[in-house]
Amino acid sequence: PEVILTARSDDPAFDFISRFFAPQLGIDEDPVTGSAHCLLAPYWAEKLSMKVFDAYQASKRGGRLHVRLVGKRVRISGAARLIFSAELLV
User: Fold this and answer.
1) Which pLDDT score, from 0 to 100, does residue 82 have?
2) Long-range contacts of residues 67-76, Cβ cutoff 8 Å, at least 24 apart
3) How far is CA 65 from CA 17, 25, 34, 76, 89, in A?
4) How far apart are CA 20 and CA 4, in angstroms?
5) Ordered per-residue pLDDT tens for the chain, 90 residues
């Protein structure tokens, strides 16, 4: 199974921090994981009574995410890096 670790941040720039591991999928540690934050947003919304968060995924590369809970949906924004590109030939 995948493992998400999270904690309240002691850095005032962030509401919470996280790390994501999925070695059985060939991912020792994912640098920044949007899908994990779809689970973390409702969790932290309940804990902190908030709906908008600044989060940091503390992997080796690291990444900042702006996360917003909108009803049952999670909106995520932040900087992205293209690491793979392909063209589907039909």
Assistant:
1) 85
2) 67/37, 67/40, 67/41, 68/41, 69/41, 69/42, 69/45, 74/37, 74/38, 74/41, 74/42, 76/34, 76/37, 76/38
3) 10, 23, 8, 7, 33
4) 5
5) 899 999 999 999 999 999 999 999 998 998 898 999 999 999 999 999 999 999 999 999 899 999 999 999 999 999 888 888 999 998
